[in-house]
Amino acid sequence: MTTQPEKSSGFAATDVLATGSDEPDTVERAEKSPDELQPFADLGLKDDEYAKIRDILGRRPTASELAMYSIMWSEHCSYKSSKVHLKQFSEKAPKNTRMLAGIGENAGVVQISDTIAVTFKVESHNHPSYVEPYQGAATGVGGIVRDILAMGARPIAVMDPLRFGAHDHPDTARVLPGVVAGIGGYGNCLGLPNIGGEIVFDPCYQGNPLVNALSIGVLPVERLQKKEATGTGNIVVLLGARTGRDGIGGVSVLASATFAEDEAEQRRPSVQVGDPFMEKLLIESCLELYDAGLVSGIQDLGGAGLTCALTETAAAAGTGMRVWLERVPLREASMSPTEILASESQERMLLIVTPENLDAVLKVAEKWGVWATAIGEVTAAAEDGTPGRLLITWNDHTVVDVPPGSLADDGPIYNRPIREPNDIMLLQADRAETLPRPSTGDELRETVLRMAASPNLCDKTWVTEQYDRYVLGNTVLAQPEDSGVLRIDEKTGLGVALSVDGNGRFARLDPYEGAKLALAESYRNVAVTGAEPIAISDCLNFGSPEDPTVMWQFSEACRALADGCLELGTPVTGGNVSFYNQTGAAAIHPTPVVGTLGVFDDVARRIPMGFPKPAKPAGDLLFLLGETRVELSGSEWAWVTHNHLGGRPPKVDLAAEQALGKVMAKASKSGLVSAAHDLSDGGLAQVLVESTLRHEVGAKVTVPEDGNSAFVHLFSESASRVLVAVPRGHDKAFLALAAEHGVPVTPIGVTTEERVLQVEGQFSIPLDEVREAWSSTLRDLFGGTAELVNRNAEPETFPVPEKVTSVTLELNPQTPGGPITPQS
Amino acid sequence: MRIGVVTFPGSLDDGDAARAARLAGAEAVRLWHGDPDLHGVDAVVLPGGFSYGDALRCGAIARFAPVMESIIDAARGGLPVLGICNGFQILCEAHLLPGALTRNQHLHFRNRDQWLKVEATNTAWTNGFTADQEILIPVKNGEGCYVADSKTLDALEAEGRVIARYIKGNPNGSQRDIAGITNEAGNVVGIMPHPEHAVEALTGPSLDGLGFFTSVLRSLATDGQLAGGQQ
Hints:
The complex is a heterodimer of chains A (824) and B (231).
Chain A: H1 27-32, H2 47-57, H3 63-72, H4 75-78, H5 83-91, E1 99-101, E2 108-111, E3 116-124, H6 126-131, H7 133-150, E4 154-164, H8 170-190, E5 194-201, E6 210-220, E7 235-240, H9 250-254, H10 276-291, E8 297-301, H11 305-317, E9 320-324, H12 337-342, E10 348-353, H13 358-368, E11 372-379, E12 390-394, E13 397-402, H14 404-408, H15 424-429, H16 441-453, H17 461-464, E14 475-477, E15 484-487, E16 495-501, H18 504-509, H19 511-527, E17 532-541, H20 548-568, E18 572-578, E19 582-583, E20 586-587, E21 591-600, E22 621-625, H21 636-642, H22 654-669, E23 675-678, H23 683-695, E24 698-701, H24 710-715, E25 722-726, H25 731-740, E26 745-752, E27 756-759, E28 763-766, H26 767-775, H27 777-782
Parallel strand pairs in A: 4-5, 9-12, 17-18, 24-27
Antiparallel strand pairs in A: 1-2, 2-3, 3-6, 4-6, 7-10, 7-11, 8-10, 9-11, 12-13, 14-15, 15-16, 16-21, 17-21, 19-20, 22-25, 22-26, 23-25, 24-26, 27-28
Helix pairs in contact in A: 5-20, 7-8, 7-10, 8-10, 10-13, 16-26, 19-20, 19-22
Chain B: E1 2-7, H1 14-24, E2 27-32, E3 43-46, H2 66-76, E4 81-84, H3 86-93, E5 100-102, E6 110-118, E7 134-141, E8 145-147, H4 150-158, E9 162-167, E10 178-182, E11 188-191, H5 210-221
Parallel strand pairs in B: 1-2, 1-3, 3-4, 4-11
Antiparallel strand pairs in B: 5-8, 6-7, 6-9, 9-10, 10-11
């Protein structure tokens, strides 16, 4: 084992072809030239890994085989550093009867009624999105959607937790608009509503933005698809886009190594290029194939392309496979066999079909205008039960002859060294609770507005307006609500709620508690809508696993999520690990992101976050559920007003979260609550800002006199808290319900017709002023969506759009890449 | 009454348009881009989406689809046709409606709940609204900026063929805030915002979109007498 930095310079696949010959490197040639030097180190393989490959094959690998092993044994594909920690998710899995497919599948599948299941998963596309924001983010959406599709589901929505560097850094003005446009450009064109996510700014993500993507799909239980390449003689069909040189080495070069400064530019060719139109056709053709029962096995092609799909489908079934590589439709005829195997061209699926179904499959593909090509067939395992071999020829040259399991399952596993960072004690001792606080009403008023306008708490409409949230007609709640809520069944009202959350600052202060807090927040966001949380997916974003302190953060986070999920009864259904999110020695904050899925028997009873309009003259009653403690460390307030990160994150009490969830579910069923909003970043003050502005309904709040200052009540980020609005007449029933579950309730005020946010004895702010502060931040930073002014005069002839009345990114001389000057 | 909804490769809101037709009380009939047969439908909706991936220009290829040949003929013969978003773009490309939809002035895709004022209530698709009725309907497009030369715009206004305008903000820079227009006969309507997304309280910002679908049923029931903007 080594902790040397993994060095993997650009993966030009042709470099690994046999030199000085027109012919590819074949098995025959490999046997004859055992001592030929091979560039395994350049492909990211270690000495001992290379030795192991030689051992498995009993000879040196061919150039193509070497490329395949380097890809499949990369961190991204093999989970070699994370496996030993991730297994806790299975070992500690809570008892569960809903799960139809779990970790190890393309995506976890959870049954939500007798006949219907949903599948969901969150994944990262961080590195590509830094190198090429638009295509990186777009293909991130495309990739996760194909995972969902591969399970037999129709994809029905996407969500995007995004993290960027400092809001005012010039490179953020390059990355953010590109990422957002890429997500919108791809998801909108696929016809998938974008129902939520996160947008977080922190300098720790400057060279390593986190672009995570979640997708959810729905399927009739019996349509669940498998990836196994079963049935000797079955045909291997490649469906979808033609294979090109894009994305070669994406997983091994981009996602499994740390970038040096300025290296991103050179890596751009490793990023895939997306074609959402092709993916839309691929979705429709696959669904038609499933419904006609024409598919025996299916796997999407994403990271590691054909290499991964061929080896995983064969390995899962224990069969072998015979593939004629020259049959793969190419964008560029000159591609070498290694390039064809390594290409990460998007919008492709691998199908296993019986010979008698082949014609019908090709016919469906033709209907949708999608390429479908029989490229191989399934071969038998040996008679003694030894799994079959993957044999690949290219124009009659045997370029690959390997046991598929050795690539897919038998990759190296590292138990990397773990060390608690030296600075953690100092960091935890530097508590935000000791920072100077605002105390007068005027100071609090100013702080509320300043916080509302801060980049992490401000209105995210600039981003979310670029996403279609209506398509498919089943979106019940979407951003900025606590959860995205979808109707699944129009007849019964069966529905789901989904929320994705993470808090890198909390996890930096304490990765164990921070990961649990992410889980708790995600759980709570689903629960406040009235849904019952049933399962999670996670995306674990960390620095380099070769740094023992990063591995410590990772192991703590995994342990926390496994413990937490066991306690909450929400199994981990799948997810993704993204390492190497670091530039030089500086890693990102450990950032576990948790996506929680909840279920409604009838989605019509969902609870929205905004105070309802019209507020009756008397208004709804506002209650705060949960306990407020002096917990300011890691808070948004400490960050925004003191640029401070230190201390210990808020206490997590998962039993309290569950009790809260039960209260909300019951309140939703009996219609006791008109609005509810989870308290997290920015505390109560931010919740009041968001819930009042949602429908322009004011609130009059009195902070409890319990010894804590008004400031603590407004800005503490204690967990397990929810603000609810209860219509008059329901308050007694609601209080009894909360008492029954032991959830503390504090009456804190009423909603008002008057469009003002007031905290009695402290301050009062007209909602217009709140809105101005809250909504102008991103617009001022990234431009482009100022209201358009109607022009009255048109030219006689066909007009060329004249002076643009708003500042647009493309036309803004300040961006992209240039320095940002404050706009006055 | 049977309302046909066309699916092109890349159509996205076809299911929603069909749902809206059903909620309005019609039978929704799916039409396929490659099949010129209109299956005897009484009206047609060209739904939103990215037909043919917006290749070349939005709607430029869809306009040549086999089903469009039949729809263009039938529309000239009085068949009520509603083009929503991409459907509006297709109708302009097919020269059933004047002008063109271009890139939003701010260059971003924009999705928001948009207020409109209905101005023409004598078309097949808007006769159920009252004049100057204000309605709330989602808008979502990247290329929804309506443009035409001033002669065309003046003619549209003079003939009462602007069916709806954006109010309380213009989401894409459309000239004279135009959100939708109709042809001379009033049977063909193009609108950029999406009425099919405002048909249920659970999922839409209002129920205002239903009016387009109930309007066409009413006009069909009265044998097309209401269709005809020039009477």
